[in-house]
Design goal:
With about 475 residues, this protein is of the alpha/beta class. Helix content is about 30%, strand content about 25%. Strands 1, 2, 3, 4, 5, 6 and 17 form a 7-stranded mixed beta sheet that branches. It has a 5-stranded parallel beta sheet with strand order 8-15-9-10-11. The model has no long low-confidence stretch (mean pLDDT about 95).
Length: about 475
């Protein structure tokens, strides 16, 4: 059987694969991009972008009714929403973003460099497509993405289970739904569906939501979002079909009948069909090859893994970084280690849920100081009618260096980037307090939390006024 020879083969045309591609192309090395699924990234097709379009519509519809009377606005009871039209709009928006991705990447490649097929390993550097074509590559980047987890026991009524892969293809939405799994995706979609008028209950076997590890922030978030729809926490969900076509969902002492279930139980890396187990590669409990997160190299083989397939940090900018690292090292012929970015996680719920830098459960309580500020008294929050939430910032007791932050707060997505910039630049809490905080903004809530932290650290700013440098 004849073999096609290239320098680098990239498995997967999602975010990680498309970030690997320029690194290889700019090196001048020959390559192929192999993908047997729908082209376009998870972010553009079923993740970040269509979900934010849905969230925005839901928020715009819900907010007038939720705050109108308080502001002296009447007539909101006449607002109506056309769910099929909303879903069509979301699909149109999704298609726009997918087209942008493909126009700037895959569509620019010569046809012979794009193989629309799945492939598996015959040898560490030999791949075979479903059509029997064999590709010999000096190096391979595995960027095959992931898929939603749906328990085997639910397959018998799979037509009543919705995941992110099929949510945006729905022509209409059910009247009632149980969202099982309240991580980032479940929380965002659950709140959006509630704001669109569905009867929603959220369920998670953990005692927290949105990936929060700080118990005080978790309590605040649960209180805020729990006022909008019931949250059943601390028990796994059991689902059984009913004779009338509905589903009975039970968690602990709670039970409810709903039309459908939105399953948000995490995602499984798409590595199980690649034949890796036959190559003698060490795999972890999820079947993912063990690899160096600073080089993305698998053992000492000319194989590199990136994006959701690696299960490291399943967010777009991290997938992009991993794709860049994997693509660069695959093409370079020698392996370079790269520093990874400060962790940043944002849940686009209302209020936003944010984790930056070191999480609460990663800190040493003996050497860590904590400052906090409740959102309720903050002037801008009161003006916006978004008074729920809590900001907690963490610093080193001795040096005052900022370590991390967890928060549940309106406009937390913006505050997160300010905190991240300070951490990445090694700033102390005192140095951060020397920057101006405009009034009235939500940044003043962060300023108040930083002041609380500053009082507890040993290293203080020189001079008589904390916020000002002397000349």
């Amino acid at each position: 059987m004849s073999e096609r020879k290239v320098d680098v083969a990239i498995l997967g045309a999602g975010s990680a694969g498309l970030y690997a591609y320029p690194q290889v192309a700019h090196s001048g090395k020959s390559f192929v991009l192999i993908d047997g699924g729908e082209l376009g990234t998870t972010c553009a097709r079923i993740g970040c972008m269509p979900s934010k379009a849905l969230i925005q519509v839901a928020e715009d519809f819900h907010r007038p009714a939720s705050v109108a009377k308080r502001f002296g606005i009447s007539g909101t009871e006449h607002l109506r929403i056309d769910i099929p039209h909303v879903l069509e709009y979301v699909r149109d928006t999704r298609d726009h973003f997918v087209d942008q991705v493909l126009t700037n990447t895959v569509d620019e490649m010569p046809p012979e460099q794009v193989i629309e097929s799945n492939a598996r390993f015959i040898e560490p550097t030999l791949l075979e497509t479903e059509e029997g074509e064999r590709i010999r590559a000096d190096a391979v980047v595995i960027a095959t993405g992931s898929r939603p987890i749906v328990p085997e026991a639910w397959q018998a009524f799979r037509d009543r289970i919705i995941t992110t892969d099929d949510l945006f293809e729905q022509e209409d939405l059910p009247g009632s739904i149980a969202v099982i799994g309240l991580g980032v995706i479940g929380l965002e979609i659950g709140q959006a569906l509630r704001n669109l008028g569905l009867d929603v209950v959220g369920i998670d076997q953990l005692e927290t939501i949105g990936g929060i590890t700080d118990p005080d922030v978790a309590k605040s978030a649960i209180h805020a979002i729990g006022q909008e729809f019931p949250l059943w926490l601390g028990h796994p969900a059991e689902v059984e079909p009913m004779a009338d076509g509905r589903l009975r969902v039970t968690a602990g002492e709670h039970s409810i009948e709903v039309d459908k279930v939105f399953a948000s139980l995490g995602r499984r890396p798409n590595v199980d069909g690649l034949g890796l187990e036959e190559l003698g590669i060490e795999l972890d409990e999820r079947g993912v090859p063990r690899h160096n997160p600073h080089t993305m190299q698998i053992g000492d083989l000319p194989l590199f893994i990136a994006g959701d397939a690696s299960t490291n940090r399943p967010v777009l900018h991290e997938a992009g970084d991993e794709g860049r690292i994997a693509g660069y090292n695959a093409a370079a012929g020698q392996v370079t280690e790269f520093e990874r970015r400060i962790p940043l996680h944002i849940t686009f719920s209302d209020p936003n849920i944010v984790r930056v830098g070191s999480a609460f459960n990663e800190l040493d309580p003996q050497t860590t100081a904590i400052g906090e500020m409740r959102v309720a008294p903050v002037g801008r929050a009161l003006i916006m009618g978004k008074k729920h939430g809590l900001i907690r910032v963490y610093g080193d007791k001795h040096t005052g260096r900022l370590l991390g932050c967890e928060m549940c707060a309106a406009r937390g997505e913006n505050l997160a980037h300010l905190v991240l910039l300070a951490i990445q630049n090694g700033m102390t809490v005192g140095e951060l307090l020397q920057m101006p905080f405009y009034h009235p903004t939500m940044e003043e809530a962060l300023q108040a939390a930083l002041r609380g932290l500053y009082r507890q650290v040993e290293t203080k700013n020189p001079g008589p006024i904390t916020e000002l440098r002397t000349r």
